[in-house]
Design goal:
By secondary structure, the chain is α/β, with parallel strands linked by helices. The chain is about 20% helix and about 30% strand. The protein has a 7-stranded mixed β-sheet, sandwiched between helices. Strands 14-17-20-23-26-29 form a 6-stranded parallel β-sheet. Strands 15-18-21-24-27-30 form a 6-stranded parallel β-sheet, with no helix packed on it. Strand 9 and strand 10 form a beta hairpin. Helix 4 packs across helix 8. The chain is elongated. Bound molecules: 1-O-phosphono-alpha-D-glucopyranose. 1-O-phosphono-alpha-D-glucopyranose binds next to strand 11.
């Protein structure tokens, strides 16, 4: 069996972070989201992986390389424009050939991995196996209608959802998917939808099995989902202290601190992860916070947030919460006159002030 990871797309819902970085490389608990997909696929025993890349191909290729670090062989497949998930399958046919494969959306995180699901697909050999999850906002996903266990209808982002069962971004197919992706027409949003291709399989009388997952699953396309994914992953964190923590500091709960980091006169209440070479001084880091490498946090408080590498947060009077702070960002108090907010914000930034 092969795997196809989709790592194109422009990440519009995560701007401005995605103006400079691929959405699949934003770290959750200090690890790029895409790495979780690589690990899940490898754990299922699959080593031959195709990765669909778009405009951000250079960054994805630099992060994943030849896949050797996961014991896998990676082939990159270039998609010139984000024309849809079914379009990605279409252009991957020369790589996938006749082999059954698992398709994994590179911005999806699935707690229990895919090992059991791949085994089930290999044992039952349907033409396709889809994963479903109960969600509160089905209109934002592909939605399934079931009759008992049987999938009877799939609709991409319906205005009036037929159920609360969303299509999870992990799918398994055999070669019958190729005629399907070639037969369907672009949707209203101008994309070839994999949802329509699976509906085509159903209409042709082919076998589409479904499995409703019970462990958590997150599509990290939006800020809230990214923070939620970070929270869910950090819930499983184990304490590991490799940096220096001074006498005046207090670590509570599960906390990971990377090598070269210094915690000075601060309180860290886990679950929280701090990368390498950070300085956390006279500060409070609250639960569900991930701070990446070489960050300076001084006389500030932060909770339920993600801070990317090389950023600096100094002397902020109020607690920072529910935030995603990019790379090399400076957030500081300005005592200059006249008293004013002074910003340099990228396009599509969002700032809430007190
Ligand atoms: C895509 C699929 C959708 C699926 C979702 C899962 O949506 O089109 O059917 O439910 O992934 O993450 P998109 O991320 O393109 O909006």
């Amino acid at each position: 069996m092969k795997a196809l990871i989709l790592s194109g797309g422009s990440g519009t819902r995560l701007r401005p972070i995605t103006h400079t970085s691929a959405k699949q490389l934003v770290p959750v608990a200090n690890k790029p989201i895409l790495f979780y997909a690589m690990e899940a696929i490898r754990a299922a025993g699959i080593t031959d992986i195709g990765i669909i890349v778009g405009d951000t191909h250079a960054e994805i290729e630099a992060a994943i390389g030849d896949g050797g670090r996961w014991g896998c062989k990676v082939t990159y497949i270039r998609q010139d424009a984000p024309l849809g998930l079914a379009h990605a399958v279409k252009i991957a046919e020369p790589f996938l050939k006749d082999e059954p494969f698992v398709m994994f959306l590179g911005d999806n995180l699935i707690r229990d991995g895919i090992t059991g699901l791949v085994k089930r697909f290999e044992a039952e050999r349907p033409n396709s196996q889809i994963l479903l999850a109960h969600v509160k906002n089905p209109q934002d996903f592909g939605v399934a209608e079931l009759d008992g266990n049987k999938v009877i209808r799939l609709v991409e982002k319906p205005e009036k959802p037929m159920s609360d069962l969303a299509l999870v971004g992990v799918y398994m197919f055999d070669k019958t998917i190729f005629p399907a992706v070639n037969a369907i027409k672009p949707s209203k949003r101008g994309e070839l939808e994999i949802t329509d291709a699976i509906q085509y399989l159903i209409d042709q009388g082919l076998k589409v099995n479904s499995h409703i997952i019970t462990g958590w699953w997150k599509d990290t396309g939006k800020l809230e989902d990214m923070l939620e994914a970070n929270r869910l992953v950090l819930e499983g964190l184990e304490t590991k202290i490799e940096g220096d923590v001074d006498q005046e500091s207090k670590l509570i709960g599960k906390v990971e601190i990377g090598p070269g980091s210094r915690i000075v006169s601060s309180v860290i209440r886990g679950p929280a992860i701090i990368g390498e070479n950070c300085l956390i001084e006279k500060s409070y880091v609250g639960p569900f916070t991930s701070i990446h490498n070489s960050v300076i946090l001084c006389a500030s408080e932060i909770e339920h947030s993600i801070v990317l590498a090389d950023s600096k947060i100094v002397d902020i009077g109020s607690r920072i919460e529910d935030s995603l702070i990019g790379k090399n960002v400076v957030v500081c108090r300005d005592c200059g006159k006249p008293r004013a907010y002074r910003f340099m914000l990228g396009d599509n930034s969002e700032v809430s002030v007190l």
